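Submission sheet (multi-component)
Chains listed below:
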Amino acid sequence: MSLVEIVLAIVKILILALFFLNMAALSTWADRRQGAMVQDRVGPNRAVVYLPNMAARAIVLLPPALFGVLAIFTSLGQVAGRAAAERFTVNVQLTILVAWFSLLVLCAKVRSGGAINRAEQVFEDVDPRSIFFAGLGVHAIGLVAGRLVPQAAWPLAAQVSGFVLGGLFLLVGLYATSRVPDGKIPLRLAGTLHALADSVKMIWKEDFIPKNADRLLHGLAPILAVFSALAVMAVIPFGNDLCFADANKNGALDFSDLGHLLATVPASGACNGLRVKLQIIDLNVGILYVFGIAGTGIIGAAIAGWASDNKFALLGGLRASSQMVSYEVAMGLSLVGLFLVYGSVRLSDMAVWQGQNAWGVFVQPLGFVLFLTALCAETKRVPFDQPEGESEIVAGYFLEYSGFKWGMFMTGEYIELVFSSALLVALFFGGYSLPFVHPDGITVAFGNTVLFQYKMTHLAVSLISALAFFGKTVFVTWVQIFFRWTLPRFRYDQLMKLGWTKLLPLAIANMMVTGVVVLALRNAGPAADSWLKLLADITQGLVAVATLAGFVALVVGLLEPVERKKFLASSAARFAAAMGGVKPEPQQA
Amino acid sequence: MEPLDRDLEEGLLELPSEPMMLNMGPSHPAMHGTVRIVLELSGEMIQKADVQIGYLHRGFEKMCERGTWSQIFPYVDRCNYVSPMLNNVGFALAVEKMLGVTVPERCQYYRVALGELARICDHMICSGAMCMELGAFTPFLYFARAREIIWDIFEEETGARVTHSFGRVGGMANPPTKYFKDMVRAGVPRVLQLISEGEKLLLKNRIFLDRLEGVGVMSKEDALALGWTGVVLRASGVPYDVRRAHPYMVYDRMEFDVPVGTTGDNYDRFMCRQEEIRQTARIIEQALDQMPDEGPINIDDPRIVLPPKQDVYTTIEATIQHFKIVMEGIKVPAGECYSYTEAGNGELGFYLVSDGSGTPYRVRIRPPCFATTQGLEQLITGLMIPDVVPTFGSLNMIGGECDH
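Outcome: structure written.
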């Protein structure tokens, strides 16, 4: 293993570890925030750091100013031909984006804090959604209108649009800075600082160890729990393979080659240079490694339960280990069908297959449901949180833990949650691939009819793929957090029954049916292949449409003005209204 | 081939084992902080359970012997802090029975309406807390939101949200407010809607049903033998409701059904409670329809009811009256009586003894959940630890009342 490979491996580990740890902190926050939301009380959003006024103004001003200057500088140089047209289009679209987004923010600020001058009063009665929809409309108009510019005017148009974009950035930055109120500015970041404060608190808390506890095992258990959660990420592919040119013609990767990323890669993804995988290590056992390491995580819980010298903790540890035994089998078997389809247990091969054909969730819907259930049980989240079962055995296996050891258990649990999402993405949601995005760019094709084609550089595709993977993981984590709070938990024997009598037979049936279908299709001939390809493309199209629709629905939902109607105005509220309507701030409520 | 272990005895194959003693409570999330159960476990199976109560004992009965009859109302509020209004009404009825007076009709309807509202609160909190302890937090919030509406009404009527101390001997502290009927008519349908929404999250949920059905079964005979009353008894199949069997106030004029269970398990207790909320809503509707808008709330007897404040400041008779009632208390004729009403979780009885002075000689309460909690040991023996949670939750044990 050469030095450059070691350095690259460390970089990759850092990327993944930072992502997982930060996501763990964020999902702790999201969990608590959601709990607070359903209870209609203040959540962790009270965590605040007060910034000096100048610092706040600088934070508001600097990024737009930087972008603005960057836009103007890049526009100073002349470009010609297609590049000019592309730059023009991108500039126009960015200008429109910046315009409607800043109007949206301004509108929200005016609605919540009031107008500070005559011009802003216009926004008091504007529905934020209309700004969003108008922005979408202008985006479309911009695309069409851009085509009308004659070819001779492209270079000029590119320059002018660049200046307009830069000017707009500067204008927005300056106006936003002028709106920063005087005095110290609270920095809340929606309460995400709470996770930080929590971890700092945990470090300084007393580390209590019960008198008769096994001190060695008591200390070892949280380490085991975190270790296994962190170690599994080694085989997760988080982006396209990067392809470098062999600049010094020595046939091996070294530091000088890293600057020479290939400009384009053919649609097949074949790389005639040096390949760097965006995966810490591409083991040939692939997913089996995940099963092996993830299974040891439960040992931490079992040891913690044993070493704590507490009967509740012991019960929790017992439950954890029995749960692991009954769900590990179903979990493994539920994926066998997937292996048959993909023809590999390597996670990188799976991602490639899903990019070229259809996502795993369409190929193996039953396998997906079974795997998701088993995964929930494996990560010990509601409704499978018997090992903790707070109303039954108080806190289960980590009952006797405090301070940072407790924090390690919690972190381990949330890393497992994020990791399980990453695994779901890698196995069932296409890994790092996006619908219709191929190594050479976007090709919207159904069967052999190509509807739309757009070539992209290797760098752009790789960036998009990595972002797609992390974005999908964040989304799946968010969905998994939703499971909590609503479902009651199983009883311990019902859980076993579900695992052994429902999940296991279903997984075996799924495996057998998949085997038969796969064999039949392999022998069906080319006609069936083309039909399958068309079906796969249709699923990709479905995903693309659903994603876009989901995005629009999300933005519209977020922009919907919140109106809370008090159902029965009590005397207190009526008196308040009579005195001029004092509405308590959310922080006070 | 012969099996290898044919000579081994069955008993030698098992490792020697002894049951594990586990102390559940009083500081345990599911024990409401007031009960301790010492469990003898084999694995997670409960072989023996010892339920120990008394962690919230405050000497309620002794406290009552110190003040006047009217000063007891705040104490009964704190017996069942989930539905204090029902306790207020129950105690007022007991004293009025000794005095031999009946409150005006308008007051009776008012008491019925307020008491039934409190019953809705009581049932919702019991069902909601049970779901929450099972891990389902969202249904609890639906129920809590519904209770909030009722508490708003109570706040408007009595000035307090939880411990109202609103009952008085011979009437109520205040007449209904101008908005009372409108508020209740607007509020109760919304409450029922919220309850239906909360139920939707539960009753089609396989996990929830599995946790309740067939768990904690109490037979009709055992329930009667233990002295169970209220919802828990009706869930076991005995249609005994004090409001129907021995109607008091104006319950004989109300049309309502008494929901009865078939098996007496946790599911039946849950469903009986939910159905009773709907029946209670019917009663409230009828009470509002029949309640006169005008008329006195308190009885017209200066020896029992405090005079209006304005008269106390302006006339000597009223001042003296006020002084006598506050300083000496209402003179209840010597004797004893037992009065019982249907409270949120069963038959709430007051056994009062008076020596003719303004102070009670003895106040004995028959808290419904005292008898209910007796049955807990029988219910959970043979079940698993997780079953303690819904079983205990479905009994609606209120610490303040059970421990007197």
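Remark: The longest helix of chain A spans residues 3-38.
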